[in-house]
Design a protein that fits this description.
alpha+beta; globular; Riboflavin kinase; FMN
Length: 159
């Protein structure tokens, strides 16, 4: 079980290129934080899948799911924070600022026997995040002043 003492968790950073698997192989594009932002995450925040809200460069605040960890299916040697924003974007937004509020924990990192099973799990995470983010308590974070100013609790990196 994840340590949720510091949830919600606020994090901000520049969107960088990832491994290129999200859009191409999985059909689930992600916005990736740079390694220094990932390294700044507190050790108490467990690896796994989280749900919350995201905004790119001051744009609309949209629901998101985020994988924080090593992605065991791909045998990553670098820990990543990959944010899937539940929205279709017309173009990539590398170099822009991504702000997220991690509101809740969905599940720990898991390995899967096939890419199809991984995609099925991610789609389940997306469905669960939509359900969790529809509550009044979760929707309050969508209007949090973090998206227009400084965070007010448990802040992460601001690069």
């Amino acid at each position: 079980m994840a340590n949720t003492d510091c949830l919600p968790f606020f994090v901000e950073g520049e969107v960088v290129k990832g491994f290129g698997r999200g859009s191409k192989e999985l059909g689930i594009p992600t916005a990736n934080f740079p390694e220094d932002v990932v390294r700044s995450m507190p050790e108490s925040l467990k690896l796994g899948v989280y749900y919350g809200w995201a905004s790119v460069d001051g744009g609309p605040v949209l629901p998101m799911v985020m994988s924080v960890g090593w992605n065991p299916y791909y045998h990553n040697t670098v820990k990543t924070m990959e944010t899937h924003i539940l929205n279709k974007f017309k173009e990539d937004f590398y170099g822009l600022t991504l702000k997220v509020i991690m509101v809740g924990f969905i599940r720990p990192m898991e390995n899967y026997p096939s890419v199809d099973e991984l995609i099925k799990a991610i789609n389940s995470d997306i469905a669960l995040s939509k359900e969790k983010l529809s509550t009044p308590e979760a929707r309050d974070f969508q209007r949090n002043n973090f998206f227009s100013s400084q965070p007010d609790s448990c802040s992460g990196s601001r690069l």
